[in-house]
Amino acid sequence: MDTENPSASTCAESRIPGENHPHERHQSGVVHDNVRHTEKFTVIGNHLIQHKELSGLAIGLGCYIQSVRRGTSVDIKTLAARFPEGPTRIAAALRELETHGYLRRTRVRVETGHIVTRTVSCNRPGHHGTADATEAAGTAVAAEATGTTEAADAHRPPAGHHSTADTACAAGTADAASAHRPPARRPASAERPPRKALPAVPRPAYPSPTLLHTATDLLAGLRRVDPRLLLSATDAEHLAPGVAAWLERDLTPTDVRHALTSDLPNEPLRRPAALLAHRLAAQLPPPPPFRAPAPPPAVRHPLQNCEGCDRGFRGPEPGHCRGCRTGDATGPLRPPPVALPSEESAAPALSQASRPVREGRELVVTRPSRVSCAT
Questions:
Q1: H helices present in the chain, as ranges
Q2: pLDDT score of 261
């Protein structure tokens, strides 16, 4: 009896649901109706989706960030416009992801000298991806710094490709490389891109120094009307001929100042000189109508007395009047001289003239009149 029979059959094991019968349906809980994805899907680990310390908003934002394409903007302002939550809640959720290693945000200086925020999403905290993803992450930062996504589009996967979160974590190696890389230096003035030239301005027909000086003074005084119109000496030198062309067309400095400063935009002006150059060229008034020059006024000579007839006339110098110079009969000529009679010939005439004459009952005595002689 104490001998073990090796040929005896073993006892049957009891059926434990979930171990011996994994396909047995549960009576309660969620039931999955899954369909296999073949395109437009993202592989996300359960350690993020079922994280015990992250909030639901942080888990949702982590899944969204891992599902978007490379180079997509995921800053607080963009996410607040995408989701109904406000900026405060979204900022707190991003800090949760950053605390648990699912998100890394660093501020770097790019080649152009601008400081940008680089966001790196990692689907497995503590692990690094391939070098290809690192290069793609650096390209996305460069695209964000320049304000375009052309460089990021060159590394985007084609349509229908699986956008997995494994490539997002690969940017973690960029941090280790950037730690040993010297900071980017600002390009020297010779290497900087040339500044865009100002628009052309009209030119005056006769650029006199006085006209250009008046135009420069007008441009320098625009900052008193609007502080945003503070111009440099180079910009004022470029715009002065355009203002001179306006002044040359019978416009006052007040008219030109009003045309340049009225209806300005409310936002800050990046290049006020470019705005003024555009207005000088686009709103140039037409030339004034042609007016024949007025004839010079007639010379008015002072009054003079004629030396011949003693009449007044106008002339540059004293002398004779026109009638005396031309001998015109109609003019006031000097009377001819009268010869005086002698005493013998004048006595009979005086005696005859002194005789009384009877006219009717009255006696009229005639006397010789005095004769005036011209000397």
A1: 46-49, 56-67, 76-82, 87-99, 131-146, 150-154, 166-169, 172-179, 209-220, 222-225, 233-247, 253-261, 272-282, 322-326, 343-353
A2: 93
